[in-house]
């Protein structure tokens, strides 16, 4: 489980591997497409509209995440800290394979040959997030963590909670909410609509919220 500290989480912009629909884990350093670059810049242009601004940026060492972090941080000018352990799930022999071929194995939690099991990946992410959240809490700083789509799923796995597909360069805010039980986080997502950041409940938490209302 993670320390009960709030944080922003951002998946990188569209990568060349995303556009080509091939699997790119921690062993394939696929750069951003022009669209991915623009996604990062678009977020950076409006990120100052957040009611609560981040104080520091932590990011994966992989180029697609590092560049997205830089573009989204252009106006804020925050300190940026790079982590090797924030990389995507190491997919071993599946790296570079068509995503349609790999996806069923990943969804069934099959370990990639010569790669990292889902449990190993989740434990790695738990460890690095714990380091980040505990360190920044001592400094009274709110981190923005820029990494990969698989990281969202790894966080869900820690709580045995399913996470739906995460869009490229989609900013999320995780706020501790122990009262929610199995997945003790209230998660918001920020869409860019007419150059304005619009905060909404994340889709993977929306069904839970509606169930409570009903």
Characterise this structure.
By secondary structure, this protein is an alpha/beta fold. It has helices at residues 16-20, 34-46, 63-72, 99-107, 118-138, 149-158, 203-213; strands at residues 7-11, 56-60, 80-83, 143-147, 171-176, 185-193, 196-201. A 7-stranded mixed β-sheet has the order 3-2-4-1-5-6-7, sandwiched between helices. The two termini are 29 Å apart. The model is unreliable at 209-214 (pLDDT under 50).
Quick summary of this structure?
The chain has 214 residues and is α/β, with parallel strands linked by helices. The protein has helices at 16-20, 34-46, 63-72, 99-107, 118-138, 149-158, 203-213, and strands at residues 7-11, 56-60, 80-83, 143-147, 171-176, 185-193, 196-201.
Query: What's the SSE pattern?
Result: EHHEHEHHEHEEEH
Distance between the termini: 29 Å
Overall geometric form: globular
Structural class: alpha/beta
How large, in whole angstroms, is the Cα Rg? 16 Å
Biggest sheet, in brief? 7 strands, mixed
> What portion of the residues fall into strands of 2 or more residues?
15-25%
Q: How many helical elements?
A: 7
Strand order of the largest sheet: 3-2-4-1-5-6-7
Helical coverage, percent range: 25-40%
Average residue pLDDT: 93
* Poorly predicted spans: 209-214
Secondary structure layout plus pairing:
Blueprint: E1 7-11, H1 16-20, H2 34-46, E2 56-60, H3 63-72, E3 80-83, H4 99-107, H5 118-138, E4 143-147, H6 149-158, E5 171-176, E6 185-193, E7 196-201, H7 203-213
Parallel strand pairs: 1-4, 2-3, 2-4
Antiparallel strand pairs: 1-5, 5-6, 6-7
